[in-house]
Amino acid sequence: MAKKVKKPKSTPNKKGFSLKLSQQNKIIFGGLLMLLSIALFFSFVSFYFTWQEDQSLLTEFANRNEQARNLLNKFGANVSHFVLYKGFGVSSIIFTFLLFITGLYLFLSMQKQGLLRKWIWGLVFIIWFSVALGFFASGQPLLGGMVGYEMNDFLQDYGGKVGVFLLLLFGLIVILVRLFQFSPDKAVAYLNDKGKSLASEFKNGKSAKVDDGDRENDILYTKEKEETPVVIDTYTHKKDIPVLAKEDDEEEFEVKVGAEEDTIAMEVEKIKEEKEESDNISDKLVEDFGEFDPTLELGNFKFPPLDLLDQHGASGGITINQEELEENKNKIVETLKNYKIGIAQIKATIGPTVTLYEIVPDAGVRISKIKNLEDDIALSLAALGIRIIAPIPGKGTIGIEVPNKNATIVSMRSVIASSKFQKAEMQLPIAFGKTISNETFVVDLAKMPHLLMAGATGQGKSVGLNAVLTSLLYKKHPAEVKFVLIDPKKVELTLFNKIERHYLAKLPDSEEAIITDNNKVINTLNSLCIEMDNRYELLKVAMVRNIKEYNAKFKARKLNPNDGHMFLPYIVLVIDEFADLIMTAGKEVETPIARLAQLARAIGIHLIIATQRPSVNVITGIIKANFPARIAFRVTSKIDSRTILDTQGADQLIGRGDMLFTQGNDVTRIQCAFVDTPEVAKITEFIGSQRAYPDAHLLPEYLGNDDSGTSIDYNISDRDAMFREAAEVIVIAQQGSASLIQRKLKLGYNRAGRIIDQLEAAGIVGPFEGSKARQVLVPDIYALDQLLSNESA
Ligand SMILES: Nc1ncnc2c1ncn2[C@@H]1O[C@H](COP(=O)(O)OP(=O)(O)OP(=O)(O)O)[C@@H](O)[C@H]1O
Residue 203 burial by CB count (10 A; 0-12/13-18/19+): exposed, middle or buried? Predict the structure, then answer.
């Protein structure tokens, strides 16, 4: 420590220049260097204005009667002449910057790793710049200096002008790439980032920990400061460079703990960096691999083309003739007149199935009076399905809906092709059909969040269900949505069997994806409840509130698949003939459905329930409360209409896809889009013929209510190949969780779940305990070995 520095030639002296500088000496020496560099800078700059007049004084250094005009007088004139004229020309100003930085490093006791690099690059830059000026401004030797001029001359003798030019260009590229780390895409980010850290480093006077990455910092210093020349004093040169080259060499600079502590601060900065680090990992992953793309596995999947859908002869829009309109208008006006109701104004909006006549009655007419005339108006118009809306919400008019003589079929093709649907930025967009004003009606199933459909037989429910499923098939990739189809009638949804491995989800042990057996329905619903719980668990761990945020986070690679995270597809549960199910299974299905309806919205499970019989024992209070979005096709009685919609109106519909949709308060009349069975067949055929996933999406296994562990009877030979490894993992960790098996053995969730069930059957783990991990019943590996060998004996 007290060893003297291997100082060039100067004899070991007692005081002199020891490079082992104390804190005070560093400040003094650093300050001196900085001041010297400033003086030289001004001297160099003033040289360019005074050199001609000072020229004659260069030999008169000792003559005190002569005064030079240089800012540093004769000293300045001589040094400048030597460094600028005889040296490197204007680029020598960079020396002053290097000198200044060296002084600053000493003054602030900064760590000096970067300094040598600055000097090297500074010198390279000085030489390159000098040669470049010599080349481009050969008529101005003061710009390039003697060195620049001579080197140019020398190089041109061998390489000619072109050769020197190319050499300079190459030098420039090297400097840009190596010194400034230049690359077009990084340039912006780099400058922002490093600018900040540079500023804080200087501000704090602190030597921030310089790691490899910080070398870039140093470059910036150079970049910012180097533009001024410097005279390299012998001592600067001889001392500083070796000192800086050996950072670890304690001989060079004395490290005073107290002084160092002074400069340590900004814990805050460290915390920030830590935060950024975790962000950066995902950013880097995204940068390297792009966002996670769930559709990649079926990257070549093609959405069904529009051609698969028929026009249904309604390509030319709505057909209604003027006469019919006039006739209806006159009849309405007359009927009302008969009851002494005057009309101030009447307006017609023609829809595909019905025309809406909006009337503004004379002042003083009571609305209820018009409402009561509903049947009379229907009689006089001799038409079924007249509906009076008094008043039309938000419009201040009374609406009378009169069916068109020739209803226009709204083809599925027309609604799918509509730009409203095509451009819909929704999670689960559904094009139901067209409203009374002939607008395509598109809603987001994810926002509903569940849908109840009811209507008497033959009024268009099945077509409606097909319209919902078709909409989703046209808009969502198989990776994004999965259907669980329950069809007790066994014939309505069979066509969708073809897309089993693309879009359907099923229980692991079931053959058919479309569920037709009521017993299986119970298992499936309970399995969905387990899936819901699992998903909530994942959301909790990921600290997000819903599936949208979760998937966005997963796509941004901020959730690690090794921790059990995965991209979650939406699950749409479709139950046709719900009444039938309730009649046969009652509470057993109502409970899980109510649970799903109450809780599943956030995790992307959405229910669509269709029923023919809208009686209160089917659509119970608990179901209704959780299905704010409801669709009523034509029903036979007002009571049914009230059961479904809480208001009448559905009894006045005309059937064939004429429907009322409510999502809270408003009731909208819609003509459901028509999609025929052959069209659905073509679509499913088209999708089914493409490359698919190996299997349908598997739901978690549900083993029934009364399985308290022992009742699960797994055949030993049916056990998973990884059963033993899994058992060991569980026993060693003493934690019975499927996600542990998933992580350690890199298995999928479903398989891990199945193994857990097998472990339970084998008596290695206890029964399912909700969100807690299962109890491990085997204390150690030895006991496990014994248990398994007894089993096989
Ligand atoms: N949107 C529609 N546009 C035109 N016609 C329709 C529409 N919806 C249904 N229809 C006609 O009504 C018929 C019966 O429709 P659908 O099979 O959907 O009734 P449903 O309510 O499912 O009957 P069920 O409950 O007995 O199965 C269809 O065959 C079709 O001719």
Answer: exposed
